[in-house]
Amino acid sequence: MKFCNELETRFRKESNRELAVPMENYMKNNFSFLGLKTEKRREIFKLIYEQNKAEIKSNYRTIAWELFQMKEREFHQVAIDLLVKEFKKNYVLEDIQLIEKLIITNSWWDSVDTIAKYILGGYLLQFPSETLKVIERFSNSKNMWLNRSAILFQLSYKEKTNFEILKSECEKHKHSNEFFIQKAIGWALRDYSRFNPNGVADYVNTTSLKPLSRREALRLL
């Protein structure tokens, strides 16, 4: 892909090892970095996007997946930014397969949370009849990142959040000892407490949540 080749050439030219090291440390050394700050990464992405718009419009799913399989984290971040931009109200039913692959590939909180909120969440807004089927499958998976996504996918829904689904996910995972699950439960409830404070307070106070989940959920109340 011309876009991928040009992006890689420019990214490697602008790489900065001094900046890369603290980025890698922050991500617990799970990924290699080129050392491109967010502003610089998005500046380059925008420029090369405009130069390759025709190719991208017809191949953005393939391009994103190609980027997501590359070594450095900046390419994964561009893949997500690209899909957030191109997917808006433009999903097809089969996109859930790509979304699931993205969640379980090169998984860490930074990628999974953005995919869950903006990509999975957007997909299920466009195809609401798929919600229960998809979320049940993700929630029952042995993959922790799919579980986390099932808890967080409504973060962009605001007052349109289906509280029954959110509570169901919290109930299913409330005894988990996994930090990222406990944190997700608290985050999702805290976010929704801005729109339904009494409902969240009542739920938290009548449910045996883990201390981390409870503390995070009540932070704004």
TrEMBL record:
SUPFAM superfamilies named in the record: ARM repeat
Taxonomic superkingdom: Bacteria
CDD domains tied to this protein: AlkD_like_1
InterPro entries the record matches: ARM-type_fold, DNA_alkylation
UniProt xrefs under PANTHER family: ARMADILLO-TYPE FOLD, DNA ALKYLATION REPAIR PROTEIN
Name of this chain's protein: DNA alkylation repair protein
Protein species of origin: Flavobacterium celericrescens
